[in-house]
Amino acid sequence: MEHIVIIGNGISGITAARHIRKLSDKKITIISPENKYFFSRTALMYVYMGHMKFEHTQPYENWFWKKNRLDLVNGYVTKVDTANKRLLLTSSEEIEYDKLIIATGSKSNKFGWPGQDLKGVQGLYSKQDLELLEANAPNKDVCKRAVIVGGGLIGIELAEMLRSRDIPVTFLVREKSFWDGVLPSGDSQMINEHILEHHIDLKLDTNLQEIIADENGWAKAVVTDKGETIPCNVVGLTAGVTPNIDFLKGSGIELGKGVKVNNFLETNIPDIYAIGDCAEQHEAIGSRRPVEAVWYTGRMMGETLAQTICGRKRAYKPGHWFNSAKFLDIEYQTYGWVFSDRSKKDHEQHFHWRHPKEKICVTIAFQKDTKLLLGINTFGIRMRHEILDRWLTEKRTMDYVLEYLKDANFDPEFCAQYEKAIISQYNDQFGTNISPKKKSWKRIFSNV
Amino acid sequence: MQIIKKVGLFIFLIGLIIFTILPIVGEFRVSSATFDKVLQEKGISSEIFIREMEKNVVGKEFSGMHSLSPKIANALETANTQHRKNKEYKKVIYTGPHDMAAAVGKVSGKGFLVENKGLMWFLTFGLGILGALLFIIPNVVLLGQKGIKNNGIYHENATNRGWIAWMVFVFLVSFYLVLYFRSEYAVNWTYLVDPISEFLSGNAAGHWFVYGFMYCTVMTVMAVRMYIKYRHNMYQMVRTTSVLFFQIVFAFLIPEIMVRLQMPYYDFKNAFPLDYDFFFQWNLKSLLNSGGIGLFILVWGIVLTLVIVPVMVYFFGKRWYCSWVCGCGGLAETLGDPYRQHSSKSLFSWKVERWLVHSVLVFAVGMTLMTLYSFFTESSTVLGLKTQSVQSAYSLLIGAFFAGVIGTGFYPIFGNRVWCRFGCPLAAYLGFVQRFKSRFRITTNGGQCISCGNCSTYCEQGIDVRAYAQKGENIIRSSCVGCGICSAVCPRGVLKLENGPLEGRINPTTVLLGNDVDLMDLVNKK
Predict the structure, then answer these.
(1) Distances in Å between the alpha carbon of A424 and those of A363, A428, B235, B310?
(2) Rounded to an integer, what distance in angstroms lies between the CA atom of residue A327 and that of residue A325?
(3) What are residue A327's DSSP bridge partners?
(4) DSSP sequence for B215-281
(5) Are B460 and B399 in contact (CB under 8 A)?
(6) Residues of A in contact with B513 (CB under 8 A)
(7) Cβ contact A333–B492 (<8 Å)
(8) pTM summary value
(9) Do B446 and A322 touch (CB under 8 A)?
(10) CB-based contact (8 Å) between B41 and chain A?
(11) What distance in Å separates the CA atoms of residue A153 and residue A183, rounded to the nearest whole number?
(12) Chain B residue with the nearest C-alpha to that of A382
């Protein structure tokens, strides 16, 4: 029986394992040093905040693994012996494989800041990071202030976590406005305001210079490039993540930033594949980055590779880009491509609507001359994935999108609707005369 | 703000403590005049009971129900034993000892409590309401911006099965035990609400009136909490208003007013088989003897169960009843909301749930068939089983223990829908309709799920919502009461409760949206 070994039990590795099991009877072994059972990394924040217990982050009950003959090995792979198809673990145990899937995810970036390895300095990625945070910042008496370095999705999550325990937070963001490398200025500006509403000391356009230690080797303050010294007990380093592939150096597997793979998620060595955060495409697909450290892409790669491994060779062919996040109280969804002011091309034009009082806004990107829909960002409004995906495929124009915008709304029943306000502003701005059509179930389910 | 909360908690606890010690204090003096009245009302002809009572009870002072109640029980038992021995069945008293003690106690109370009902109401209910509101309302400010606020739920003793939760558990269970099995100890509580009962129905309050009034009060106060907590979610606001309205108007006010108008006491929204004694002989007789309104209620009750309930479930899912109208659901959604996370999500619990809830449904229907057979044929047994014994068994096991003691008492430990999930026969019936023929579903939004587990954690019905959402499948489950909290707590906007066409409602997916594999290709290869 063919033995499939998967290194890493995150979303991509587990998805691959589940789908391989669905399609075949192969022997499957999953190795991870982090936690015996698969858990949802994105939910770690809710454990610290007291919304859930750690066990709630585990999507499958403990009996699931044995029942589906997915062998779990708690261990850390130190070496991949590609010639003999063998893995070496720290416990000096050896595991032989017929096919190997590398799904080791990411690790937090550290950019060589002075003091980055002090006690009290940490990232937020793994279960161990969560445990460390619980020890470093159990309450506001132990942690009198925390400084977070890096204004991305993990940074703002960490800020929200610490604020849930009333710990004062200073948030150093390199950009001139929060996440403005990704978000258009209107969206980004609204999030800036919301961060301040949560009493987070947001310092834009500010970089970390160094972290100062006390006599016991603990962080006691950070110094910024503005010359400011901020006393603190915890420093959160959240300036992005990078593929977790150090153990593969010298194995003969081609590495770049991540594990280099082709469209079929194959590495340069036969029978070795890489998926998820740690995989790097030789050539980026569409407007995507070569390394995609996103939950959804990890899952999709797992789904795809399972097909290949079970004899239905299939290229990784992600559909229209989509993503979501939550910035404190504001839910964010995006479908298609909406580029930031910095990175958008000339042909891309934006329409931005923002609610006069509430923290709700929408940015729609379209082609300047053809008015074709390119993408949409919504904040505080939920959109129906199927509809947006269909519109992007069908290459709908702005007129069409706005006319049928009600079909795309996914907010809970009885929630206030904003299509009218959005469309009336668009009409004013572009001299059109669009009026919204009533939501229609028939259209929504037309291609189910 | 924190100080206001603490003061509120303090005031609430004072009210609660006074309320809690009331059953064991108070003065009772049974005069011969009031005793005669009780004898008349109950139609008692047992001279032994009268002799025993006159010897030990009448004309004497008792401090606390615990000294009065055993004497009455004793007299009752002595009398009944003697009469049964002598085969004087006409003289046997069928009122239970606790009901008898409650009846005698109710007309014999005296002293401060009975003379100051208004003041005592304020010191119990009043302080409770005031304190609770002071504790709850500062959250408007403390919770900050609109949005889901579940911070600290698993750090707090009260909401994480700590000692406070166990105290609440003990209190609730004891309260229900008194209510169902030791009603004489509720006599002092009835005095508190006498003025209100007299205003509504013209009668003095019994212990079920206390319960009804308390139910409405608790729901109203906890609804304020719901309004504050879920103010970002209009569905929750509307739904909370709806359950509150149906409880206060339909379950509480209308039946009381009907009594005042000499009509039968009836809750128009309480559908059989949840309303399990609707077809009991005494109820049918009472309805048939109540003229036009009685007949109307009879027809309404049958139409409600056979037509209105399933048709509404077809259009809106069982949520229209379970989390918009039902009283049990109403309490679960208000008082029980802080405990919703405790419902078990394991596969094992789901198995237990299906066996239990459907067994209760079979039990309820079987019992009712027996009842109707007995009613029309006027025989007291069916296939050798005594109809009345089966009815009593149901009333005790399901009506009192399951729905009351376990259903509500276990809130802080097993979550707020123990009864609705494991026991309610109506929920089982609605569940069939919802599962097989309904427009209702919880739609999963394409591939947006991140498996975080908030939905499953906060599902009060113990549905592993995430198991469906992460596969991109809609959630179609017979047990879903459509409370909408999974959708509210989802950080990524993945879930939406909606009513739509039947086609495509159940949608098992092979590959999630976002991954562009050729689906037809996949299907054909299978």
Answers:
(1) 15, 6, 26, 42
(2) 7
(3) A330
(4) HHHHHHHHHHHHHHHTTT-HHHHHHHHHHHHIIIIIIIIHHHHHHHTTPPP--TT--TTTSTTTTSH
(5) no
(6) 319, 385-386, 389
(7) yes
(8) 0.94
(9) yes
(10) no
(11) 12
(12) B493
Q: In this model, does residue B517 exceed pLDDT 80? A: no
Whether residue A275 contacts residue A297, with contact meaning beta carbons closer than 8 Å, is answered with: no
Q: Are A64 and A72 in contact (CB under 8 A)?
A: no
Question: Quick one: which of A253, A54, A219, A31 has its CA closest to A134?
Answer: A54
CA distance A46 to A164: 10
Predicted local distance difference test score (pLDDT) of residue B506: 86
- Looking at residue A439, what DSSP letter applies? P
* A304 three-state secondary structure: helix
Report residue A208 as tokens: 């970390």
The one-letter amino acid code at B334 reads: T
Instruction: State the amino acid at position B480 in one-letter form.
Output: C
Q: Tell me, what's the ipTM?
A: 0.95
Asked if residues A148 and A158 have their Cβ atoms less than 8 Å apart, the reply is yes
Q: Give pLDDT tens digits for A282-307.
A: 999 999 999 999 999 999 999 999 99
CA-CA distance, B186 to B197, in Å (whole number)? 15
Reference B256, options B267, B245, B241, B246; nearest CA is B267
Least confident stretch, A96-100, A266-270, A332-336, B105-109: B105-109
Q: Mutate which of B149, B154, B319 to test chain A, going by most A C-beta atoms within 10 A?
A: B154
SS3 call for A241: strand
Q: What is the amino acid identity at position A207?
A: N
Give the residue among A98, A301, A103 at the shortest CA–CA distance from B512: A301
CB pair distance less than 8 Å for A300 and B515: yes
What residues in B contact A445, CB-CB < 8 Å?
Answer: 500-501, 503-504
Cβ contact, residue pair B497, A304, below 8 Å: no
Distances (CA, A) of B187 to A56, B27, B32, B106, B111: 45, 11, 19, 6, 14
d(CA B363, CA A412): 38
Does residue B322 contact residue B420 with C-beta atoms inside 8 Å?
yes
Phi, psi of A305 (to 5 degrees): -65, -35
From chain A residues 90-149, the ones with a CB under 8 A of any chain B CB are none
**Long-range contacts of range A190-196, CB-CB < 8 Å, 24 or more positions apart?**
A190/A330, A190/A354, A190/A359, A190/A361, A190/A379, A191/A156, A191/A327, A191/A330, A191/A379, A193/A359, A194/A327, A194/A328, A194/A329, A194/A330, A194/A359, A194/B145, A195/A156, A195/A159, A195/A171, A195/A327, A195/A328
Number of H helices, E strands in chain B: 29, 7
Which secondary structure element, helix H or strand E, spans residue A189, and what is its range? Answer: helix A185-197
Q: Which helix (H) or strand (E) holds A260?
A: strand A259-261
Q: How far is A128 from chain B (nearest CA, A)?
A: 18
> For B65-87, what is the HEC assignment?
HHHHHHHHHHHHHHHHHHHHHCC
What pLDDT, on the 0 to 100 scale, is given for residue B523?
46
Query: What does the alpha-carbon distance between residue B182 and residue B192 come to, in Å, rounded to a whole number?
Result: 18
List b or e across B218-228, with b for residues whose CB sees 16 or more CB atoms inside 10 angstroms.
bbbbbbbbbbb
Q: Which residues pair with A208 in a beta bridge?
A: A224
Partner-chain contact A444 B500, CB within 8 Å: yes
Q: Indicate the range of B106-115, B221-230, B510-519 predicted with least confidence.
A: B510-519
Q: How many CB atoms lie within 10 A of CB A182?
A: 20
Q: What is the largest CA-CA distance in chain A?
A: 71
A164 touches chain B (CB under 8 A): yes
Best probe of the A interface among B159, B452, B468, by most A CBs < 10 A, is B452
A-facing residues of B in 444-483 (CB < 8 A) are 445-448, 450-454, 456-457, 466-467, 470
Sign of the CA dihedral with A8 first, then B451, A242, and A280 last: positive
DSSP H/E element including B62: strand B61-63
Provide the token pair at A95: 């595991």
